[in-house]
Fold each of these.
Amino acid sequence: MKLQNELGEIRISSDVFTAITGSAATNCYGVKGMAVRSKTDGLVHLLKRESMAKGVKVYYNEDGTVSIELHIIVENGVNLMAVCRSIMSEVRYVVSQTTGVEVASVDVCVDSMRF
């Protein structure tokens, strides 16, 4: 993503967005971690901290905003709506404060629940 200001141009890679998003999401209550669905066996796997970016997809919109899609694994017994709202709010806030880019939407996909 390119941001233009009076001093010049700033380029933010998608790796920055995924790292910030993954960190913000996993810090929320009830989130076990980021998830990825295996292409070989179709099962959902919990990602380690080093590879949590695989559970995040960032889409760049024409109007200079970003849309984010998260795939997560939650703890058993949590209120899914409350956890997802918390993640959406936290990710939107942290990404916009850190990068200065407005977040158009945050979609949270709960792929699995861990006991």
Amino acid sequence: MDALPIQEESGVPFASQADGKMHACGHDGHTAMLLAAAKALKGMEAQLQGTVRLLFQPAEESSGGAARMIGEGALEGVAAAFGLHVDPASPTGVISAKPGATFAASIASP
């Protein structure tokens, strides 16, 4: 999902098998984090009130991914949303947070 148009030349065992396409920007990490969150939340499902919706936003590096998802109804009925993104400029083991948009310059109306 959402691979970049780059030829993989890393030589790692888990390298892309699609010619001219590579997950070069952390999408494997993002996917692993989303799956880990899903597993953890499923494990405590009886303690949760309401429904949890997990989303993987396409085109987060460019504009339009969030707006398109919102326009297609991804947030309909959602009371709260939490986003997560890796930041290679942050030291390993550091988690930072703040309210509002962090990586997105703005959210366009759908």
Amino acid sequence: MGSNGTAGDYLPPLDIGESESLAFFEFTATVPGTYWYHSHQKSAEQVDKGLYGTLIVEPKNEEKVDRDYTLVLDEWMSDPDAESHMDMNMSGMDHSNMNNGNSSDNQQMDMSSMGHDMNMYDIFTINGKSGSAVQPLKVKKGEKVRLRLVNAGYMAHKLHLHGHEFKIVATDGQPLKDPQPIKDELLNIAPGERYDIEFIANNPGEWLLECHGDMEGTDGMKVKIQYEDQTNNTDKENAKENLPVVDMTTYGKYEVGQFTLDQKYDVEYTMDLGTAMGKDGMVYTINGKTYPDTAPIHVKTGDFVKVKIVNNSPMDVHPMHLHGHFFQVLSKNGKPVTGSPLIKDSLNVNPGEEYVVAFKADNPGNWMFHCHDLHHASAGMVTEVKYTDYKSDYTPDPNDTTNKGE
């Protein structure tokens, strides 16, 4: 792993061959927060089929909540033919890992008219269940409740907590400064993102946390919040209600973070996200190139790095994820962040949007910076943060074929 012991999604790939049944590795969990881990071997396919889990790193000294629930959001295809079509179209891709000890998601393209259709995903789940099958969240009046929301799917989901004010206390595992209570606003959670919210159970009855949207599976992504020994105030779902979406760039109390827009940076990089037609179908590009031809971000240990991310795709949303580091979001569409310092490792970039982010190169290695819609990563939207003063001690086995794809 990287030198600073970051946790969760930042671990190097763990490869278990056909002749092996078990492998062990260890790391020090030094960064508290809500994380998740998932396959980086044929990840567009394997993560889609559920090969992932959550990793909660609890702080040593923090006020405890009374209830702490982790809720994983995902979406699935009910039509076996649709899934077979997806698998068939992905079968020509080589998702081999890179031989540098730190990188992952090295996914060469053979799109073979991939063109994945999100409408094939018609079952939306929370912790692998949908609709009435989702286990209710039990609370008692007066309790402080934390919900850890993890999006393991390939679509953003807008969640509405009924009947209560709540605070967004952390994003991607990183705390927010003085979060204010909000009510009847939607929290938009993009692929790869995590949000921790807290509320006080002060409105006895049965309430919902539900997804808003128009897709077929939307009404399945809901969970009941049930007060023990209380039966009044039975909630009604209303996924069509027109509610505002929380603007994270203005949320929380402003203070100067580690980085500012006008300070001096050692490395500056512009990441132009786009689409193009390749010889085998649609590809997703960074600065007009697909991985491995994308230009890496070259850094050395201690560098301050500023990255401008611009989504010039006409229709596609790109949740961009950086391995091994947290970055500070400095501006959106030219306007500086006016809320809490916003520290993240995944950032949802809608068509036409522009963000400026900054990070310190403090974790030597070679790290992926990619779209967490893994179909887009598979189709080329990947680059690397490469440390020029780092040399991997990993030597690939020339006889190992486990990472050669199919």
